[in-house]
Request: fold
Amino acid sequence: MKFKKKILCIGAGYVGGPTMAMIAYKCPEYKVNVVDINPERISEWNSGKLPIYEPGLDEIVKAARGRNLFFNTDIEKGIKEADIIFVSVNTPTKKYGAGAGMAADLQYWEKTARQILECSESPKIIVEKSTLPVKTALAMERILTSTDNGIHFEVLSNPEFLAEGTAVKDLENPDRVLIGSSQTEEGLKARDELIEIYENWVPKERIITTNVWSSELSKLVANAFLAQRISSINAISELCEKTDADITEVSKAVGLDSRIGSKFLNASVGFGGSCFQKDILNLVYLCRHYGLDQVADYWEGVVKINDYQKDRFVLNMLKAMFNTLAGKKVCLFGFAFKANTGDTRESPAITVSRKLIEEKAELRITDPEALNNARNDLKDIKGKISFIEDPYEAASGSHAIAIMTEWDLYSELDYEKIFQSMNKPAFIFDGRNIADHNKLFEIGFNVYGVGRPPLTHF
Ligand code: UDX
Ligand code: UDX
Reply:
């Protein structure tokens, strides 16, 4: 079949994989080729069990794979034949040298830029999907124009706003698609080519265009604002625990103000995921670079409150359980950073597990999708940890349950049965406020939510 255009995506992760599957599904006349340096990941994309769990993803991959959606490891060939290249490689927080713990580690991203330059034989549009510090598109352009090979590369910024667990829904029906381009004739032409792809399913008025830097910055700011709402409500949750207020009631009352809105006001054990912390730290680094220390401090506070919330959760457990966890069995319900994903990157459950092990507790971890990742995240820890698929088995014999992830499953369990199987007094610490606390209390549990006074039998 003759395709209208050939798209390549470098990086078959949580962002590249689903995004390309949706483009291929909606645009049968484009060939969409997804490459990755990790051969195992690619073979999983080609198998019956995809490398990531995402509701609805199997169906769209099955519909497009082999028709106009392809997964392979031949990056060079992919670059040669592509007209449009999406770059979706990971850009974690740097762990070494200048900016360690703050700035983005751009080594994969730069290596990819150089590889594009080396292998290209024809002009290409390069679309930046990875979240990057502002002005990296400019750096990309500088690398790509560093030789006089006569090939024109036009760099666009097109940040992805999908959230894990709802990626397919978000891609199918996005609030907006943002495209940043240079304002030159060539920049605008490239921008229009990308608009043409999205117009296959996204209403025109939701596709917005800006200059490259506004687009790059908007992505960081959107994530910073979302995370800031969670840290704000989590900060208030501590005050609620000390008074007779209930954070669920407060956030409902506050969120009904249409100027504030009700979303992202659920108090929790803390936010996780690969983006929020990394993007805020990028923003902080950028502000410091420009000497804007007050602005940097303001945003850094969002991450500090998040760390504090995770620490506080474990300290509350310790205090409630008579100031010692040594030798006690603690069962974690959920390990993923949020429901409906197997992803555990920056999951609050990692921090909580490490702190519980420091207190010499024995951990029993259960999660419907994230146990393999959990095993990997905790592999360096010396301590007693078991990974158990069945939540009833995991809870049996435990002194306490800590709900870490808001999987529906955990609000639907037979807690009467669970209570019978546990050590007494039995404690439950609901880090997501998803269980029916009054009912649990009636069953006999000592119940500790986030942002509400505890319900205890002593
Ligand atoms: C990544 C970035 O982390 C995020 O900042 C950006 O917004 C989107 O892309 P994600 O897809 O969640 O997010 O990352 P990950 O699941 O780690 O996928 C990246 C993939 O790129 C991996 O499969 C990795 O093997 C691949 N990769 C990495 C390459 O193909 N080449 C490289 O040089 C480096
Ligand atoms: C986020 C952004 O939402 C998305 O637009 C961007 O593209 C990538 O980063 P993601 O990290 O996948 O998406 O999930 P999100 O739903 O934003 O949740 C992030 C974390 O915040 C999770 O740990 C979640 O449990 C937590 N959260 C969310 C709360 O604690 N309370 C809330 O009210 C909402």
User: Anything to note?
Assistant: The radius of gyration is 24 Å. The mean pLDDT is 95.
